[in-house]
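WARN no homologs supplied; continuing
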Amino acid sequence: APPGRFENTTSLRALELSPDATALYSGWLHGPQMVWRHDPSSGAVTAAYDMGGVQANAIATDDRGYVYIGEGDYGAGRIRITPSALDSTVKSFGGKDGTEVEGLSIRKELPATGDLPNYYLYVTRSDGTIERYDVTDPANPALDPTFGTGGVYDALAGEPLRGIEVAGDGTMFVAQRDSDPGTNDRSGFVYAIPPTLPTDPTTIPAYDDIAAMDLALYGDLLYVTTYDGDSSLVFVFDDHRLKCVQEGQRPTADVE
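OK structure emitted
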């Protein structure tokens, strides 16, 4: 990156690699409210998207070259779609007063008839709801009425959900992190919500006592980052069983 570009930019919140691994996108909470596109091999900034003073809480990408950005603080809970060049806004949609977008995940589904694939965007919000949008036509996204109630799943309503990853079988892995303002005691869960979308939250498989902030699937493993001050960790799970197979302390030294 050019010298000084990130001098006043702190608190990395969103990080997403494009499906073809040719671009890395980053969103930051403090400093210039931008989404940056980087060359993955060098880290050099190749494009930038101005958020207009709104924090970028989440980023997702698809194999058509579209980038999805979820609004955090100072926004209106919207999702923005932009081309990979970050040079325009295809659509801004899904605004919801009083909530922030906390996580985004794209799922590509191939119809049995052999038609063109459908693309669905999953959205977790700070009010505990999960939405699914049909973004097959990026210029005309719409809630998917076959998902939950009118495109919204609310069995965890009231829980501050964070990141989301959707597995190939449709299982939704969702992070949840809370903070008690009185004690600053952070706690939370990792949920594995099956495609059947249980209405009783007590029946949803979960791993508790973990301040889960975000997660990523790679192969058969689920990697979960936590936000718990000096006790922040990275957990590794055998994904569908939510069996913790490894946990590691965050690095204490600066990483160059």
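The chain is about 0% helix and 50% strand.
OK
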